[in-house]
Design goal:
37% of the residues lie in helices and 17% in strands. By secondary structure, the protein is of the alpha+beta class. The protein has a single domain (11-306), classed as Creatine Kinase, Chain A, domain 2 (2-Layer Sandwich), CATH 3.30.590. The strands form two sheets. Strands 1, 2, 3, 4, 5, 6, 8, 9, 11, 12 and 13 form an eleven-stranded antiparallel sheet that branches. Strands 7-10 form a two-stranded antiparallel sheet. Strand 8 and strand 9 form a beta hairpin. It is globular and about 50 Å long.
């Protein structure tokens, strides 16, 4: 197999959501009383990026960068500074979904869902606005969206066009979505996709596209962040070279969508082995194998991986 390396420049950032939990009791608590930044007025952080509350979640947003090292560095800096703004007695955890105590859902913001619409790249239609009701009233989900843009170089200018955005989201479903089905296959992740993160979910942006399929699992380690970065380059390659439609035809559109939606790990592994490995860069393969090893060893402690140390916020 011909060795494939990542060469193309692109911009990348993310806006992951985390759960806030009391350290002692491990009770899940709402971010609303503890985070000053909002969706409309995020609070800037000293080293770049910002923090805001979104429903009951703590959401951070990184500045865009055009390198793998910058992507990892921005996430670590933003996380570290965000934690300093929170009370000493709480911690952040990365889980795809959870049921919150009812006493944490009384604020009006805790009932606000899907402030702006997102869209399905496969249907070219707006996704239905999610809203937990009935027995699911206490259910909340937590994503980690990837923002991909062009640096202004002609090779990635397709990200500024409608069809280019659609093709990129489909390519990311093939790589990020299928591979994440293997790495993020728990019941909490499958439950999340019933409301958020359906295959093809995205928002078009003036710089490119926001891919909204993934949960926050890939923020657990720099290894999985590096994997997402390199898979983004692989997806861009498929679109730039005009071969994404061939890949989709080989795998099958319905097969891609159903595998992601249902958390079908067995089929995802077959797709990876048969179709994706030969299209992935050596860096992507390396970080995929590293992530699988960590998963099997249950060695992906969020705070340990990022060397996060909680400092009491200044009064």
């Amino acid at each position: 197999m011909e060795e494939k390396t990542n060469m193309s420049k692109f911009t990348i950032g993310c806006d992951p959501e985390f759960i806030m939990r009391e350290k002692g009791s491990r009770k899940l608590i709402s971010a609303i009383p503890h985070v000053r930044g909002t969706k409309y007025e995020p609070m800037p952080l000293p080293l770049g990026g910002n923090i805001q509350r979104d429903n009951v979640a703590v959401e951070i947003a990184t500045d865009p960068t055009d390198s793998a090292a910058g992507f990892v560095g921005n996430i670590k800096a933003t996380l570290s500074e965000a934690i300093k703004t929170l009370p000493e007695e709480v911690e952040l955890i990365a889980e795809a979904s959870a049921h919150f105590p009812e006493d944490q859902l009384k604020h009006p913001e805790a009932e606000a869902f899907g402030c702006d619409p997102d869209y399905c790249a496969w249907e070219c239609a707006e996704n239905e606005k999610p809203c937990p009701v009935g027995e699911n009233y206490t259910f909340r989900s937590f994503g980690a969206h990837i923002h991909v843009g062009t640096t202004g170089e002609d090779e990635n200018a397709f990200l500024l066009e409608f069809q280019g955005k659609i093709d990129m989201v489909k390519a990311m479903d093939c790589f990020h979505g299928i591979i994440s089905t293997v790495l993020d296959s728990g019941d909490k992740s499958i439950a999340r996709r019933k409301l958020y993160g359906k295959p093809g979910a995205h928002r078009p942006k003036d710089y490119g596209v926001e891919y909204r399929v993934l949960s926050n699992y890939w923020l657990k380690s720099p290894v999985t962040v590096m994997l997402m970065y390199n898979l983004t380059s692989d997806a861009l390659d498929q679109v730039r070279e005009g071969i994404i439609s061939q890949l989709i035809e080989e795998i099958g559109k319905d097969n891609i969508r159903n595998t992601i939606m249902n958390g079908d790990t067995k089929t995802a592994m077959e797709i990876i082995d048969k179709h994706l490995m030969k299209r992935m860069s050596q860096d992507s393969i390396h970080y995929y194998n590293e992530a699988i090893a960590k998963l099997r060893a249950n060695d992906m402690d969020f705070h340990k991986e990022w060397e996060l140390y909680h400092h009491r916020k200044e009064s």
